[in-house]
Design brief:
Layout lengths: L2 E4 L2 E8 L6 E4 L10 H7 L5 E4 L18 H14 L5 E6 L1 H13 L3 E7 L8 H17 L9 H9 L4 H4 L1 H12 L3 H12 L15 E6 L7 H8 L6 E5 L6 H4 L1 H13 L2
Parallel strand pairs: 3-4, 3-5, 5-6, 6-7, 7-8
Antiparallel strand pairs: 1-2, 2-4
Helix pairs in contact: 1-11, 2-3, 4-8
Length: about 270
Amino acid sequence: MPFVEVEGARLHYVDVGTGDPPVVLLHAFPLQSDMWGPQVACLAAGRRVIAPDLKGFGKSSAPDDVDAYSMTAYADEVAGLLRHLGVERMVLGGLSMGGYVALSFMAAHADMVEALVLADTRAGRDAPEVLQRRTDQQEQVRRDGISGPDGSGLLETLLAGLLSPAAPESRPQLVGQVRRMMSSNPPAGYIGALEAMKNRPDSTERLASIAVPTLVLVGEHDAAAPPEVVGAWQEQIPGSQLFVVPGAGHLSNLEAPDLFNGAVADFLDRL
């Protein structure tokens, strides 16, 4: 089980397959690298795929100090992991919070990025009501943990917004899989990531300067990052492509993996 110490964090990561440039995948909040299982299985047949557990999630370390968490810190830790692995150039992909980290990575380490894949994410900062909700969620975790005393805590609230409305009835196994990933993360990771998202920079003004091939994906039924919102900022990235994943919610890579994988594979083959 591979681990590396970088930037004061102990990161766990998946590293499978061979071929350049490697594809690096950054996971959503509040999940972990396991969410990329369908993509790793598909892409590693002909490419090297690297997927870290961001600090606070999965098997990586989870400091209690909220000041240890920021999009810049996440990005620097990923850069440190890649340097440890001898990776100089790669394709960087991120979904939801992973997309926030990817955009911060572009601000600090753009020379390492050969192409960019952004899924179900936003470029701007949170609206005031979202910032307040994140603060309330931090207090909820401090008070009740992630599951709550009666099993109806933050975990279930967040889970309801990650998948399409049809998923609980049509894909109960997938719902259970996502719930298990969420429940295995420590409370400190939730609190720290919420702090990082609250304080993340606005990347909108930097979109026009992105000079690498870029694919943007979004689930048709994504309520957290709706297609019309994603399409608006995607148009600001020169030459970028948009793919709306039919029938999928926020975790489009898990709800429609074949369609998601096909779009990503086609994009990679054209590089």
